[in-house]
Amino acid sequence: MGGGLGATSLLQRKLMSNRIQIVTTTSTIEGWTIEKYLGVVTYQIVIGANIFRDVFSSFRDVFGGIAKAYQKDLANMEEIAIENLKNKASKLGGNLILGLRLDFDEVSGGGKSMFMLSASGTTALGKPISGSIVDQENDLISFERLEFELERDLISKKVISNEYSIQRPNEIEELLEYRIEALEKVVQFIESYSAYFDESKDLLTQYFQIIPLDTLNNFIKSNLFLSIRNDTFYKFISLLSSTDWFDYEVIYFLLNNQNSKSHQRVLYLLEFSKNYLAKDDLVELGKIVSLLETVYQKYPITQTSKGMLGKEKTEWVCLNCGTKNPIESKSCQTFECRANVYGIPKNQYSPESTKTSITNKINKLKQLLNVT
Questions:
Q1: What's the rounded mean pLDDT across residues 233-253?
Q2: Residue 33 within a domain
Q3: Within this chain, do residues 358 and 280 fall inside the same structural domain, yes or no?
Q4: What is the dihedral sign for C-alpha 235, 237, 241, 244?
């Protein structure tokens, strides 16, 4: 199941999961040979707090040097942005990020003022001129870092307990600040306290952006993912769309699952895509098309019963609301539902339309990659 906690911090696991060895603001690295430049990587993060208003309403705190809360917010934003750049660069096959640039801007609209950090750099593949790089351990640990790690351990132990549940948005903020994985409990918070979702969406979006890919994958393959209400699922999808998520193995898992809810929800996930595609993706996309052609053949789910005059009639059962519909009907006759035979409301997605979309991608990709 996703969202589990361990003694290793989230940041440490992230560092182990990517290949990036050096991130630098310079265009070259002394002692390294650049073998290949792989392209520019960018990332933006927005913090949902009216920092400017708060700052200018308290000149005394700012000019007196008592702005630690803001400094912590900015440091967190930088850390999240750089880690996401590393993940993107790793996916391109690089081990270096050159020319790192961090730009802060104010984003205003709808009566709100937010802080946006834009990060960019050039991905490169390089190697040391002589020998391999050796990380040197830092023998000095600041007191502030020590306190932070001790507090993180205390919160991690609290969160991992079965009794723990999230009941207020500020608890999400705490998980984000200390980089603590608790994805399942965050989703349960969304399910149990849906009224908080709109006011917490910026915070939840930031939280989803620090969740490792493996944790997201494990959650999507879990029973909890299939059991959450549809409204919670739609919220989850909107948050997932703020990440770089896509995983073929998870898609195959859901398509091969016998649960009809799995077949419904995977069609939403197939709207996602990898940021970069190569020849290998043609094979994977072809597998998905083949599964779409076979998995959904069992639909609609029908029932046969005898009418008043003893004549048999066949109806299909709506997987969204349970209504029985005439076999010739293409969508559920309940006005509020109008789901298709696969249980998706208002026919938003279907295996047929998804198959057509993916087939078009395959054909265009072959053309762009000069594959015959």
A1: 95
A2: yes
A3: yes
A4: positive
**Omega of the bond leading into 212 within 30 degrees of 0 (cis):** no
DSSP H or E run through 12: helix 10-17
How do strand 96-109 and strand 22-23 relate by DSSP bridges? parallel
pLDDT given at position 15: 38
Dist CA 110 CA 120 (whole Å): 28
Strand stretches in the chain, DSSP E: 22-23, 32-47, 96-109, 112-128, 302-306, 312-317, 324-326
| Tally of CB atoms within 10 A around 143 | 7
pLDDT band of 5, cuts 50, 70, 90: very low
β partners of residue 98:
122
CA 126 to chain centre: 29
Query: Which residues neighbour 164 within 8 Å (Cβ) at sequence distance 6 or greater?
Result: 158, 185
How does residue 55 score in pLDDT terms, banded at 50, 70 and 90?
Answer: very low
pLDDT at 66 over 60: no
Looking at the fold, whether 17 and 92 belong to one and the same domain comes out as: yes
Instruction: Give dist(CA 348, CA 340) in Å, integer.
Output: 9
Burial class (CB in 10 A: 0-12, 13-18, 19+), 299: middle
Same domain, 41 and 164: no
Taking CA atoms, 122 is separated from 25, 76, 102, 119, in Å, by: 10, 22, 13, 11
78 and 209 in a single domain? The answer is no
Amino acid, single-letter form, for residue 136? Q
Helix (H) or strand (E) holding 328: none
Residues 96 and 202 in one domain: no
Q: 125 forms bridges with which residues in the sheet?
A: 36
Using a cut of 0.90, tell me whether the model's pTM lies above it. no
Query: What's the domain count of the chain?
Result: 3
Dist. CA 286–CA 366, nearest whole Å: 12
> Could you tell me if 274 and 180 lie in one domain?
yes
Helices 183-192 & 213-220, crossing angle to 10 degrees? 50
CB of 282 closer than 8 Å to CB of 366 = yes
Q: What does the block give as tokens for 90?
A: 């790793």
Q: How many CA atoms lie within 13 A of 232 on its CB side?
A: 17
Q: Which domain holds residue 191?
A: 156-295+353-369
Highest mean pLDDT out of 150-154, 176-180, 303-307, 357-361? 357-361
